[in-house]
Write a structure and sequence with these properties.
Blueprint (H helix, E strand, L loop, with lengths): L15 E3 L5 E9 L10 E4 L2 E4 L5 E6 L5 E5 L6 E4 L8 E5 L16 H10 L1 H4 L5 E13 L2 E14 L10 E11 L10 E2 L5 H4 L12 H4 L2 E11 L2 E10 L8 E8 L5 E8 L4 H8 E3 L4 E17 L2 E17 L6 E11 L22 H4 L1 E2 L16 H13 L1
Length: about 400
């Protein structure tokens, strides 16, 4: 399985409120203490729920229990616990400090990157869940033509994962609630389909789908090298860079793997598809297109995040981002498109649940857009935790709804 998908992030400027239904809501903006730059993709956890900040650094976290504090973390920064007050009516601006790395002498032995990765692979059954679990997630996919949004689809989904010492054939994703919006302009219609969808946490769970990346045959295709360590939250991480070292019939990746220094669990992967061979890249990205349309791949990047909690590492966030051009015969210029999809696990306190049956599950051949209804209700999400839309996406949604 060599196909990949798309995802994006959002988060933070904070106000606390309690709705009439007893749901507490915390919102805010997360920035770097050193530079003031907003931090997209920061993890915000509280009350057994998790969200991530969007590209504006903004988040909203909802919970049915009273929150005394939230924990905010980001790669390369110290995790921060923020105390909350029910009387607080001013927005929070959460400033994260860059982390200081202190290597433990016993772990400095990891100078051999390939050996470190092999050891981390051998510890997968121990580091990840040994029982089936049911997670609640939020999923969003968008498409843009040049700088304008032409499609938005999003939903609440359930994800069932079997134990990590077990084959993943029974892993499933089911849509529980969703909505969609499409530009009504015929000139905006895009019938090109790229890889992706709510099955991302199954397809790109690299520690379970080892035939995709973490196996001896695939790893032999890459040059692995140790980089400077970093932190994720309050846990120190080894960083291993990877780049292609030989030509294969399919496109390879460049990027980084993050490995927890204490548990030697894989905690994060940041990968970009090699675009040097356009035909190989197209094979990885494109599912189908109309006759007469030429597809020109420009970028495919992906992020896979895992979260350590209570002695277990679990998948927490996935994002893929596509950039490509399409041109039609007889047209002088090509049109630039981007497509993104992302999924965040919002319930970090997942408990063992019943499997999602095949007839309820989302199939990787399905299009998410075809499985959900049009945007209608302005309070559609109610008390669900979601990835907050950026300011630009909110404006685009408003414009598209006016044209319906």
């Amino acid at each position: 399985m060599r196909r990949v998908s798309t995802i994006i992030l959002f988060v933070v400027l904070a106000i606390i409120s309690v709705s009439a239904q007893g749901v507490m809501q915390v919102s805010g903006t997360v920035v770097s203490n050193a530079t003031g730059q907003v931090l997209a993709g920061a993890s915000v956890t509280g009350g057994g729920h998790t969200v991530v900040t969007n590209d504006d650094g903004y988040f909203v976290l909802k919970t049915d229990v009273e929150l005394m504090n939230i924990t905010v973390s980001h790669v390369g920064f110290r995790a921060q616990r923020v105390r909350l007050s029910a009387q607080q009516d001013e927005p929070l601006r959460i400033k994260l400090k860059p982390a200081t790395i202190q290597l433990k002498e016993v772990l400095v032995m990891a100078g051999n990157a390939r050996e470190l990765v092999a050891t981390a692979i051998s510890k997968i059954p121990k580091n990840y869940s040994q029982q089936p679990e049911l997670f609640h997630c939020f999923y969003r996919e968008t498409a843009q033509k040049r700088q304008h949004y032409i499609m938005v689809a999003e939903g609440v989904v359930d994800m069932y994962k079997t134990a990590y010492d077990y084959d993943n054939n029974d892993d499933r994703v089911a849509i529980r609630k969703g909505r969609r919006l499409l530009s009504p302009r015929k000139s905006d219609t895009l019938t090109v389909k790229v890889t992706g969808g709510p099955v991302l946490p199954i397809q790109l769970d690299m520690v379970k789908q080892r035939d995709w990346l973490l196996n001896e045959e695939e790893l032999n295709c890459y040059h692995l090298e140790m980089e400077l360590p970093t932190t994720i939250g309050d846990r120190q991480q080894f960083v291993v860079s990877m780049r292609p070292r030989r030509k294969m019939p399919y496109a390879l990746y460049t990027g980084r793997l993050y490995i927890d220094q204490e548990t030697l669990a894989f905690t994060r992967a940041e990968l970009s598809l090699d675009m040097s061979d356009r035909h190989k890249a197209t094979e990885m990205m494109l599912v189908k297109k109309p006759l007469g349309v030429r597809f020109r791949p420009k970028e495919l990047s992906l992020l896979v995040d895992y979260r350590y909690e209570d002695g277990v590492t679990r998948i927490s966030y996935i994002r893929t981002f596509f950039r490509f051009n399409c041109d039609w015969r007889r047209r002088l210029f090509a049109t630039a498109f981007t497509a993104c999809c992302e999924m965040v696990v919002t319930d970090q306190n997942a408990t063992t649940g019943l499997p999602i049956r095949g007839r309820e599950s989302f199939d990787q051949r399905d299009a998410f857009y075809d499985k959900v209804d049009y945007f209608l209700d302005p309070i559609f999400w109610q008390d669900y935790n979601i990835i907050e839309p950026t300011v630009s996406l909110n404006r685009a949604i408003a414009r598209l709804m006016k044209r319906m």
